[in-house]
Design goal:
The protein is of the alpha/beta class and 242 residues long. It has a single domain (2-232), classed as Aminopeptidase (3-Layer(aba) Sandwich). It contains five helices and eleven strands. The strands form three sheets. The chain has a seven-stranded mixed beta sheet with strand order 1-3-2-6-11-9-10, sandwiched between helices. The chain has a two-stranded antiparallel sheet with strand order 4-5. A two-stranded antiparallel ribbon has the order 7-8. α1 (46-57) crosses α5 and α3 (161-173) crosses α5. The protein is globular and about 50 Å long.
Length: 242
């Protein structure tokens, strides 16, 4: 899904895990349904933050319209987590005994389609005077496989170390406990979407991870978005080639 923005907006937003939708012809079983409400199926609150930030800044945004359990647009299709056949011991009903034909269908219908929409939108935005920088919005669970994650947000990066450090400093200035390359690391290839399109178009890029209990209510989304807007005020990220 593409949200139009101002032609010369500084930011271009993406949200790869915006939805827990299982599109037809796939169908969730009754046993699957509770898992679709968890972090395994989508990034809770991430779409709401993306939309709020897009409205406030006039930024374009591209959001996924399918669950990450269908396939993960933030992973290479060769990654073993691109389609998860089970989560915490539960065998996902619509992912059982997947053959090569169904994997190929999902690659084309969902993964390729998302990145085509994103790539086309960025290409159009590049026609304007000043190119944007890319910010991918995600959320994470505060407890993962029994491990408690104490930080509020994480700034993920690979190429853009200095901007990541500065963005993290600004987020801390808003009272957010902020970590670099946590709970996942961009240096381990875990910011696939931002990396893919940032490098393709020569644009700076970062990924933001937000602990999902901070944004699972409307009030939480508003508070977190306000903090992000304050941190982003005057923040500039330049491509390596300038």
């Amino acid at each position: 899904m593409l949200l139009e923005g101002h032609p010369n907006s500084q930011l271009f937003l993406t949200c790869e895990h915006a939805s827990n939708r299982v599109p037809a012809p796939l169908a969730a079983t009754p046993a699957d349904e509770p898992w679709l409400e968890t972090h395994w199926a989508w990034d809770i609150g991430a779409a709401q933050v993306t939309r709020a930030l897009a409205r406030a800044t006039g930024s374009p945004a591209v959001l996924s319209r399918f669950s990450r359990l269908v396939c993960d647009p933030n992973r290479l299709p060769t990654d073993h987590t691109w389609i998860r056949e089970q989560v915490e011991g539960h065998a996902v009903g619509f992912n059982r005994e997947l053959g090569s034909a169904e994997r190929r269908r999902r690659l084309v219908a969902y993964h390729h389609a998302f990145h085509q929409t994103l790539g086309d939108a960025i290409a159009e935005r590049m026609l304007e005077e000043r190119p944007p920088w890319l910010l991918s919005i995600h959320s994470f669970t505060g407890v993962y496989e029994g491990e408690r994650r104490g930080m509020d947000v994480g700034v993920l990066f690979d190429d853009y170390v200095t901007p990541a450090v500065e963005f993290a400093r600004r987020l801390r200035g808003q009272g957010l406990e902020t970590a670099l390359n946590e709970p996942y690391s961009g240096l381990r290839g875990l910011i696939y979407s931002a990396n893919r399109h940032g490098r393709c178009f020569g644009l700076p890029y970062l990924e933001l991870e937000i602990r999902n209990d901070l944004i699972d209510t409307e009030a939480g989304v508003t508070q977190l978005t306000d903090a992000l807007l304050a941190a982003l005020a005057g923040f500039q990220v330049e491509p390596h080639w300038t």
